[in-house]
Design goal:
The complex is a heterodimer.
Chain A: E1 3-7, E2 11-12, E3 18-25, E4 34-39, E5 45-51, E6 60-62, E7 70-75, E8 80-85, E9 94-101, E10 107-110, E11 114-118
Parallel strand pairs in A: 2-11
Antiparallel strand pairs in A: 1-3, 3-8, 4-5, 4-9, 5-6, 7-8, 9-10, 9-11
Chain B: E1 4-7, E2 10-13, E3 19-29, E4 34-39, E5 46-50, E6 54-55, E7 63-76, E8 86-91, E9 97-98, E10 102-106
Classes of the chains: A mainly beta, B mainly beta.
Amino acid sequence: EVQLVQSGGDLVQPGGSLRLSCAASGFTFSGSALHWVRQASGKGLEWVGRIRSKANNYATAYAASVKGRFTISRDDSKNTAYLQMDSLKTEDTAVYYCTRPNAGNWFDPWGQGTLVTVSS
Amino acid sequence: EIVLTQSPGTLSLSPGERATLSCRASQSISSNYLAWYQQKPGQAPRLLIYGASSRATGIPDRFSGSGSGTDFTLTISRLEPEDFAVYSCQQYSTTPTFGQGTKVEIK
């Protein structure tokens, strides 16, 4: 079964840092890109960023709202991707999902989501 | 950035009725790179449709997608109790963006 399992959500103060993890199974993780998407309470989905495979030089891209503060990385030996979030703001409060892109960039499957709350 | 606008915001229908959801793009989406997702409270999105009209694996044939260019539609032919949820469209012609969602609620 193709699966993404997330961990790492927490309550953090503004200006703080947090790292989320996304562990993959059931497919060749090393050959796949991985995206992060977030959803604030009662709001729509917002693309956060992505990392491509080694064959594509682990290229990353980010939404303007997080560029320079968030960093996506991966460890193919552990079949895991990471979202490092620094200089967190209250507006970063959301459920964060990791997801795998398919042929184009439609997303399936999705991780179960993890809640990040930025508050003092 | 391509902005996706979904309408209506909320659709109140009864089981057995037909649901028609709209997704309009601010510019043409090439190669029909549009997907639809279903999301229930506390759950991750679930892929329903990709390529504007191709059903994902395991999705019942009461779900269908259509459209091209800037106007796309998700149709649920006969609503089942489990279909009451929020539906979002997503384009992947450029940097991915999502619509704000349409809630299908029980009338």
